[in-house]
């Protein structure tokens, strides 16, 4: 018995019991364009007890048309213990159909015929199954997710059997299946598969008068999958010789440009790449790289000239936005900043949905447009073009969504309104920002000063006006802080400060004491100092409030603390807790730690760390101090 006959009998032996007991179809040798009627009998299958059954199927063909393998449902009609259905075989690119059955209400309950599916192979006019009718089944397992949809995995032995049968029956189809067969043998991992697969690679390449780039690429991938990187790399070098302007050569050149550290040579190499490979898939990313390079090398005029030459498809609008905003915020190259953001807006108008974008692209596009308009307004106002900037702000500012707005943008909008005599129009949004806690100190000051200048008003009235706007917010904040207040004994202490003075807790009896435990090496401690300076300044004329900045856990020479305070303009009283006795007594677990002692000599508030938000820190400490002064 020859091998061809053996494989044919093998497949028939497997399929015959299924056809008789579980699945059969008519005509028995269906052809393209025909409707196939099939009968499914679930009694001996995993669905034997199910009453709601549906079919799922895929069409399959040659590997290059496997996009056909998109699962679809087929309606079944129950007739006694059987289910019947129909499928139309298209006239083009189809070599067969594969089906599974499942509970329509519980899709995880499936019958996949022991992982082989139920198969309807297409035949030709003579009744012989058409090319790809067997290999295409294997392709469903290796090139589609149909089996995974049913929660199963392919049997590598069966996949190899299908590929080998197809190649045996149709040797001329070897170029279609050779690599898939070898890849399946790698996954099969039978003893000695490595040498066998490598021999298969060499044999196939030797049989080709001129291996195609696809052949060489696939062969390299196969070697790589087995860990033979020298042979994989050798094949890739061979690819470069066969195709000296191909993808691999372009990739090498692109990588060389990325790795070039000299800016002048990088620009030259990019121009050469652009000339040789004007349609390369690597060009958009390289163009973005060069865009970034111009900015980092502070060649802003060169950046503008470069960007204006590029097609929209090679331009990152959000990158230009970031660059333009930074330039505007730093008040440098302002005309160029305006040109960059205008270019970014032009690009966004025609930009298709990026691969990295998820969700509704039109909604995302509007969000990006608002970001770009914000930068455009910033570039205009920084040039003193307030009349041009104000309508841009109006275009993207949403007065009804202050809660989700950026407080810095709201401040800039209001200041621009002030300069263009539209303060009254912008006032409602500014007031809401104050009321909901979304107002910067600059916005509050500008709103108060504007109010004070209105006819009949004074600074005192303006202060009352601002306090009234914040009343509800502060009441809410006080309620929240009330829940955070503690009531613990405040250990007595006596320390020496940087000026040699004795700082004793007994000297502050009946006062509110704010202790800030810190060290010069502590980044968050230092970061919080501007906020702590503001908080101290608020009570600088109040004799009943005292701020002490206790240096602890320093772990170094005392001179380091002196040097730090000499370099910074903080008018802090700095007691020295070199032995950490006070820090330990006040349960300092980490720094910075702020402790507030009430007039009754008890610890009422303790917080560790720094949020990074100076205004929140100032407001919180201010409210705590005021509450304790009121006897809360």
UniProtKB/TrEMBL annotation:
Residues 484-630 form the Thioredoxin domain. Transmembrane segments: none annotated. CDD domains: TlpA_like_family (cd02966). Keywords: Signal. Residues 1-21 form the signal peptide. Pfam families: Redoxin. SUPFAM superfamilies: Thioredoxin-like. PANTHER family: THIOL:DISULFIDE INTERCHANGE PROTEIN DSBE, THIOREDOXIN-LIKE PROTEIN HI_1115. This is TlpA family protein disulfide reductase. It comes from Spirosoma flavum.
């Amino acid at each position: 018995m020859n091998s061809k006959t053996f494989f044919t009998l093998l497949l028939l032996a497997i399929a015959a019991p299924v056809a008789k007991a579980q699945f059969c179809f008519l005509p028995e040798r269906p052809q393209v364009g025909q409707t196939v009627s099939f009968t499914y009998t679930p009694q001996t299958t995993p669905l034997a007890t199910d009453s709601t059954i549906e079919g799922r199927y895929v069409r399959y063909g040659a590997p290059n048309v496997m996009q056909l393998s998109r699962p679809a449902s087929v309606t079944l009609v129950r007739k006694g213990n059987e289910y019947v259905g129909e499928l139309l075989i298209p006239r083009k690119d189809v070599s067969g159909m594969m089906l599974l059955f499942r509970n329509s209400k519980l899709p995880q309950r499936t019958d996949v015929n022991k992982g082989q599916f139920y198969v309807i192979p297409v035949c030709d006019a003579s009744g012989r199954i058409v090319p790809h009718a067997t290999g295409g089944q294997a392709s469903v397992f290796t090139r589609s997710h149909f089996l995974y949809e049913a929660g199963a995995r392919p049997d590598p032995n069966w996949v190899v059997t299908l590929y080998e049968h197809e190649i045996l029956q149709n040797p001329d189809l070897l170029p279609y299946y050779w690599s898939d067969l070898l890849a399946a043998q790698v996954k099969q991992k039978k003893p000695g598969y490595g040498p066998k697969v490598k021999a298969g690679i060499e044999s196939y390449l030797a049989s080709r008068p001129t291996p195609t780039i696809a052949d060489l690429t696939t062969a390299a991938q196969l070697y790589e999958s087995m860990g033979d990187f020298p042979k994989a790399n050798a094949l890739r070098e061979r690819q470069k010789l066969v195709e000296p302007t191909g993808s691999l050569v372009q990739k090498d050149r692109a990588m060389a440009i990325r790795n070039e550290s000299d800016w002048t040579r990088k620009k030259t190499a990019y121009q050469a790449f652009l000339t040789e490979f004007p349609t390369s898939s690597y060009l958009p990313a390289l163009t973005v790289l060069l865009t970034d390079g111009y900015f980092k090398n502070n060649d802003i005029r060169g950046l503008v000239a470069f960007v204006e030459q590029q097609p929209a498809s090679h331009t990152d609008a959000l990158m230009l936005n970031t660059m333009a905003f930074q330039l505007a915020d730093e008040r440098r190259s302002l005309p160029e900043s305006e040109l960059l953001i205008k270019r970014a807006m032009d690009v966004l108008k025609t930009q298709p949905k990026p691969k990295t974008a998820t969700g509704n692209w039109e909604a995302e596009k509007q969000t990006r447009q608002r970001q770009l308009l914000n930068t455009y307004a910033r570039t205009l106002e920084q040039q003193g073009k307030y009349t041009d900037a104000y309508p841009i702000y109006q275009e993207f500012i949403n007065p009804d969504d202050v809660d989700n707005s950026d407080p810095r943008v709201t401040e800039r909008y209001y200041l621009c309104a002030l300069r263009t005599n539209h303060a009254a129009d912008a006032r409602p949004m500014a007031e809401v920002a104050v009321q909901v806690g979304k107002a910067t100190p600059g916005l509050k000051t500008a709103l108060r000063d504007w109010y004070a200048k209105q006819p009949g008003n004074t600074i005192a009235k303006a202060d009352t006006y601002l306090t009234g706007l914040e009343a509800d917010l502060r009441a809410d904040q006080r309620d929240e802080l009330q829940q955070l207040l503690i009531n613990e004994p405040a250990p007595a202490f006596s320390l020496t400060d940087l000026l040699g003075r004795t700082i004793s807790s007994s000297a502050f009896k009946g006062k509110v004491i704010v202790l800030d435990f810190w060290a010069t090496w502590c980044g968050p401690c230092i970061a919080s100092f501007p906020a702590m300076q503001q908080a101290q300044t608020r009570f600088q004329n109040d004799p009943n409030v005292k701020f002490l900045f206790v240096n602890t856990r320093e772990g170094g020479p005392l001179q380091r603390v002196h040097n730090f305070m000499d370099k910074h303009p903080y008018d802090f009283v700095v007691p020295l807790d070199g032995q950490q006795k006070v820090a330990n007594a006040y349960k300092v677990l980490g720094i910075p730690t702020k402790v507030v002692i009430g007039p009754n000599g008890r610890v009422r508030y303790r917080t560790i760390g720094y949020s990074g938000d100076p205004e929140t820190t100032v407001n919180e400490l201010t409210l705590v101090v005021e509450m304790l002064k009121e006897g809360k």
